[in-house]
Design brief:
Distance between the termini: 11 Å
Oligomer: single chain
Order of helices and strands: EEEHEHEHEEEHEEHEHEHEEE
Structural class: alpha/beta
Radius of gyration: 17 Å
Shape: globular
Number of strands: 15
Strand order of the largest sheet: 6-5-4-3-2-1-14-15
Length: 263
C-alpha cells in the first residue's frame, strides 16, 4: 500500500489496481476564503499550492472518499475537486447525509451507513462517527465520519476525519486496532467557540492509543490550523511517542507492507 499525501487532508491510497482519492481540495492558492479573521492571521485558502507531481497522482483514480463536505467544508471537497470527480465519473463514497449534497453536482455517489462494516471493492469499509469540535461549536460544524479500511493483502487503515478524541475514535483504535491511523492534527479553531480539532494533548493520547503507526495530516495548508510540523515533532519527542509518528511533507509518499517505511 502506498499513501500519497498531497496537501491538508487530501491523500491518495494506492493498493493493487485501486487509487482512492480522500478529501480532495485541489484548487489553486487563495481559491477559498479565510476561515478565521481574528483568532488566526486572515489569509485566503489554501495557503500553499499542490505539490509537484500532484496531477500525475490524480490520474487513474478508481474511487474517492469524502469524510464531510456540507456547511462550508470546502477544504475537504472544493470546486476543483468536484469538477474532477464529475469529469471522470469517479465513484465517490460518502455519508448517507452527504449523498444528496454531492449528487446534486451529478457526481456518482456511493452512500455508506454509519458504523456498519460494508463491502468496499474487494475488502471492507466501516464509517466511524466524528465530532467536529468541543461544546456547542460541534453542532455548528455538522456531522462527519472517519473511515476504517480493510483491503486484502494490505495493512488496515483508519482515517480519523475532522474530529476531537471521542469514545468512537477510542473504540476504533482499541478494538478495531488499525495498523495505520491518519489523524487530523492541525488543532483548528474558528473566531468563535472552542477548538474544532483535537488539542495537542489529545493528539498525543491518540498516538499512545494507536496500536500501530500514526500519520499526522491537516497541517500547514489552511489558515485556521496553527500547528506546525516542527512543533508536533518536538512534542512527540518530549512525550515519548516519536517512534510511532510520521509527519509527511506535502507531496511525500509513504509505503507500507508489514512494517511501515518511507518510500
Amino acid at each position: 500500500m502506498k499513501l500519497h499525501f498531497l496537501r491538508n487532508a487530501t491523500l491518495i491510497i494506492e493498493h493493487k489496481q485501486h487509487r482512492i482519492l480522500v478529501d480532495p481540495m485541489l484548487g489553486k492558492v487563495g481559491s477559498l476564503p479565510s476561515y478565521s479573521f481574528i483568532r488566526h492571521k486572515s489569509l485566503r485558502n489554501p495557503m500553499v499550492p499542490l505539490p509537484d507531481g500532484a496531477q500525475q497522482h490524480l490520474e487513474g483514480l478508481t474511487a474517492a472518499l469524502v469524510t464531510h463536505c456540507q456547511l462550508g467544508h470546502s477544504d475537504h471537497l472544493d470546486g476543483a475537486a468536484k469538477k474532477l470527480l464529475l469529469s471522470k465519473k469517479i465513484p465517490t463514497y460518502c455519508r448517507l447525509d452527504d449523498e444528496e449534497f454531492i449528487g446534486k453536482r451529478v457526481i456518482p455517489t456511493v452512500p455508506l451507513k454509519d458504523e456498519q462494516r460494508q463491502p468496499f471493492f474487494d475488502g471492507y469499509i466501516t464509517p466511524i462517527p466524528t465530532v467536529h469540535g468541543y461544546g456547542w461549536i460541534a453542532g455548528f460544524m455538522g456531522p462527519g465520519v472517519g473511515y476504517f479500511l480493510e483491503l486484502p493483502d494490505a495493512p488496515s487503515l483508519y482515517i480519523s476525519g475532522d474530529t476531537v478524541l471521542t469514545k468512537d475514535v477510542r473504540h476504533c483504535l482499541k478494538t478495531l486496532r488499525p495498523d495505520i491511523a491518519v489523524v487530523a492534527a492541525g488543532n483548528a479553531s474558528l473566531d468563535i467557540g472552542k477548538d474544532i480539532l483535537m488539542s495537542l494533548d489529545e493528539i498525543m493520547e491518540f498516538i499512545r492509543l494507536a496500536p500501530g503507526q500514526v500519520i499526522a495530516n491537516h497541517l500547514e495548508a489552511i489558515n485556521h490550523c496553527p500547528v506546525k510540523r516542527t512543533q508536533l515533532r518536538d512534542l512527540a519527542q518530549k512525550s515519548g511517542v516519536s517512534d510511532k509518528l510520521l509527519i509527511p511533507a506535502d507531496g511525500e509518499t509513504l509505503m507500507f507492507s508489514k512494517q511501515p517505511e518511507f518510500a
